[in-house]
Amino acid sequence: MTAEAPPVLLLAGGLGTRMGGGDKCLRLLGGATLLEHVLARVAPQTARVLLNANGDPARFARFGLMVLPDTVPGQHGPLAGILAGMEFLAAHAPDVADLVSVPTDTPFLPRDLVRRLLEGRAAAGAEIACAASLGRAHPVVGLWPVRLARRLRHAIVEEGERGVARFAARFPLAEVAFPAGPVDPFLNANRPEDLACAETVWRANPPG
User: Fold this and answer.
1) By residue range, what is the domain housing residue 89?
2) Which of 84, 104, 159, 162 has a CA positioned 20 to 30 A from the CA of residue 149?
3) pTM score
4) Under DSSP, is residue 127 helix (H, G, I), strand (E, B) or coil?
5) Is-contact 83 99, C-beta < 8 A?
6) How many domains is the chain partitioned into structurally?
7) pLDDT (tens digit per residue) in 153-208
8) Would you say residue 2 lies in a domain?
9) Are the beta carbons of 7 and 143 closer than 8 angstroms?
10) Whole-angstrom distance, CA of residue 134 vs CA of residue 81
């Protein structure tokens, strides 16, 4: 993917409570962290990868990523991470129009994710695009205009909005379907049993 591709924001700002706490993205799968797997999938698709995470950024130093903490106090979920990415780009890269968000617990992300989100949004004449598979939308895997930052901040701070799908539904939205194949590309490891499932899938379908 060329330098014109939107930056990708990796969302790792949650508490990981369903995984027992701590940084879920640093759990191991096939001998590498979930974050490493996600990076391997998305880094070739864009010229810039950002990481949304709270707390001491030093624990992510080995990944060489710009770490962006949430810009609103309290735990507001992935919407707050998306806002942090939007506001960073609006302040430091005003020529960047869009941002792609992905969670860091999805190690099988499509290698053509960014391109297909862009194409799907354009084909639908929409403002936002999100991924879908097996008849289910995955709004956290989305393509967002940076210019929506003020409206997103208002929704979080003034309205208490926490739902990514609800916020996205306020705008013309394209759902871009991805084939599941032998593996659902959006399989996510929220809980220990999910990670065990991902390990089984990984061993049966090693990356090519």
Assistant:
1) 8-204
2) 104
3) 0.90
4) coil
5) no
6) 1
7) 999 999 999 999 999 999 999 999 999 888 889 988 877 776 777 676 766 766 54
8) no
9) no
10) 26
Of the pLDDT bands very low, low, confident and very high (cuts 50, 70, 90), residue 22 is: low
| Residue 14 exposure: Cα atoms within 13 Å on the Cβ side | 21
Q: And the tokens for 188?
A: 């996510």
Q: Is 3 domain-assigned?
A: no
What phi and psi, each to the nearest 5 degrees, are found at residue 39? -60, -45
**Tokens 């049993």 belong to which residue?**
193
User: Which residue's structure tokens are 């962006």?
Assistant: 68
Q: How far apart are alpha carbons 185 and 71 in whole angstroms?
A: 30
Q: Is residue 1 part of a domain?
A: no
Name which of 110, 134, 111, 132 is nearest 121 in CA terms: 132
**Residue 44: exposure state from Cβ atoms within 10 A (0-12, 13-18, ≥19):** exposed
17: domain CATH number? 3.90.550.10
